[in-house]
Amino acid sequence: MKPRFLMTALTTVGAIVLLSVMALPVAAQAPKPTTAATKAWTAPKTSWGDPDLQGIYTSDDYIGLGLNRAAQYGNRLYFTDDEVAAREKNIDATAQRDAEEFAAPGGNVGTGPPNHWGERARRSPRQTSLLTEPENGQTPALTEEGRRRQALYTRQGAGTANPEDSWEGYTYYIRCITRGIAGSVLPVIYGNGTEIVQSPGYVVLLQEMVHEARVIPLDGSPHVGSNIKTYMGDSRGHWEGNTLVIETKNILGNKTGIGGNGGGTPFSENARFTERLTRIDKETIQYTMRVEDPTIYTAPFTFTFPIRQEPGYQNFEYACHEGNNGMMNQLSGARAAEKAAAEAAKQK
Amino acid sequence: MRDRYRWFAAAVIAVAITFSASIIFVSAQGAQSKAPAPTAAPATRGQATTPAAPARGQTAAPARGQTGTTPARVARIGGKPNFTGLWQALTGANWDIQDHSSEPGPFYQLGAAFAVPAGQGIVDGNEIPYKPEALEQRRLNRLNRWTADPEIKCYMPGIPRANYMPFPFQIVQGDSTIAIAYEFATSNRVVYLTNPRKAQVPAWMGTSNGHWEGDTLVVEVTGNWPESWFDRSGNFHSDALKVTERYTLRNPDVIDYEATIDDPKTFTRPWKMSFPIYRRLEKNAKLLEFKCVEYTEELIYGHLRKPVN
């Protein structure tokens, strides 16, 4: 239900936010341990005795935080209290502006949708990057094969390429097929909702964007045969204490990666993913994904962030393909531009 | 295209200016109402520095809620029958929900493989009470069925059709919500048992609220998008459609399914369909992925592909 064409602004916004934050004076003290964590809280159980993760969660608070850490933070994983306070003031100022019905007199008014059509962080991340492994918070280098495939298979998002020859030049997200397993969880500017439903022997993760439903058996059953490859892979889960651990393989290679909405250098068919979901308080699940793809990356890496239940937040049906006028318009626009150029050339 | 890029540039610059300004000119308003910093950091730190090694040897131990896996077949959940499992109907209703004879398929080259088999319908009494003008629309739909059926374009099938397409679907039943994941087009829905949702916008898969009548699960589906069809024969409905589904376990492996179709814009009275839905009993049968969008792109966008010179 939100404008899909805003998504290219995401990376720019992220970069600007980082640059702006970098311009602020940085206090050097380490983050103080939070006292809230010491409050007594018992992880709830379902009626059949499994840890209860059910609810509708969003990763909105980590919107705009880079996968990779800005250089100034080095190996420091957490913002200082002062840095967090500055970021939260910024969030408040944005909320204030969003609430205003009219543009300020003399203000710059565009013809596009207002940027508050996207989703907003409600509080600042503590982390300086989504990546926690390796320690420097940087995506590991590509292997030689990874670089070769990057050149061959990286597809374009909206508005970033020359007029396209066909739909096949676009990402699987723009084509409304999928964002892949990592792209479906990493926060973007809207549609960050994940609804979790559990039953004895199963967990389902329902992701709003491009309407994914990952059915994860917990019954110890074996993976499907290795000749069955899928965009979202074949997942099996088990419990380690209160943590749901999901292991996924059998993914289609050369399709989706860790860029915005599953773009960027795609994973290979050898990629394996280990996700960990732990409910850490009434509203929050700490979500972690470890990626091992030795064909593409020189080392494994891990990203983590909390997902939270927020009052009134819910998933809507994301009928992406059914309403993909953007694809139709971009392709027909490109053909019209070519025709106009050909006619102009004839006139010369 | 050029206009589009200009628009992008404008949007990106506007967003950038807004964000920069908001960081540089820090507002003091509202800071006191901020929720406490998330408590995730310590847990995150713990996980990040000492990742627990996956205990592979322990995964077979069914110590529920501690470590391991959970048996999938539990007869009842919260005192109610457990519908969790992989299910599929075996009717020919996706061709036509009414009784129909066999006929050739749309492409003679595919011969017998893609011809239409005869089928016994699922409509009670085999009669669909269309209003006269709706009957005319149904005639036109049938005439254009090999191009107009939304299934051809991999659109979400809607309810009830998703339940009798020739694909399996997975039910995952919890205490207060039930997820239903359909293999076709990764369509899915959640049935809310305790906190009913009002349909806020129409949706291809509708908005589903459920309740129990004894051991029967009753699901009311409202907020239905008007463009889905009931079958490949052009049976259709409007945005006034309300579907009331009833799921009753005949035995652990068979659901007796019934749907009441109520759409006063299209039909003169509510009508019913019913059929059994069978548990998929193959060893290790699992819901697979049928993301069919890419099989439709040549059909939908092919005329816009750059011509080869």
Describe this structure as you would to a colleague:
The complex is a heterodimer of chains A (348) and B (309). Chain A is an alpha+beta fold and 348 residues long. Chain A has one domain. Chain A is built from 5 helices and 10 strands. A 6-stranded antiparallel beta sheet of chain A has the order 2-10-9-8-7-6, with no helix packed on it. Chain A has a 4-stranded antiparallel beta sheet with strand order 1-3-4-5, with no helix packed on it. By secondary structure, chain B is α+β, with helices and mostly antiparallel strands. Helices cover 17% and strands 22% of the residues of chain B. Chain B starts with a helix and ends in an 8-residue tail after the last helix. Classes of the chains: A alpha+beta (348), B alpha+beta (309). At the A-B interface, helix 1, helix 2, strand 3, strand 4 and strand 5 of A face helix 1, helix 2, strand 1, strand 5 and strand 6 of B. Strand 6 (234-240) of chain A pairs antiparallel with strand 1 of chain B, so a sheet runs across the interface.
Q: What is the topology?
A:
The complex is a heterodimer of chains A (348) and B (309).
Chain A (H helix, E strand, L loop, with lengths): L8 H15 L31 E4 L22 H19 L31 E3 L10 H10 L26 H4 L9 E7 L2 E6 L4 E6 L16 E7 L2 E7 L22 E8 L4 E9 L8 E8 L16 H23 L1
Antiparallel strand pairs in A: 1-3, 2-10, 3-4, 4-5, 6-7, 7-8, 8-9, 9-10
Chain B lengths: L1 H23 L15 H10 L17 E2 L7 E2 L2 E2 L3 E5 L42 H12 L1 H4 L20 E5 L3 E6 L5 E5 L14 E7 L2 E7 L19 E10 L2 E9 L8 E9 L17 H5 L8
Parallel strand pairs in B: 7-8
Antiparallel strand pairs in B: 2-3, 4-5, 4-12, 5-6, 6-7, 8-9, 9-10, 10-11, 11-12
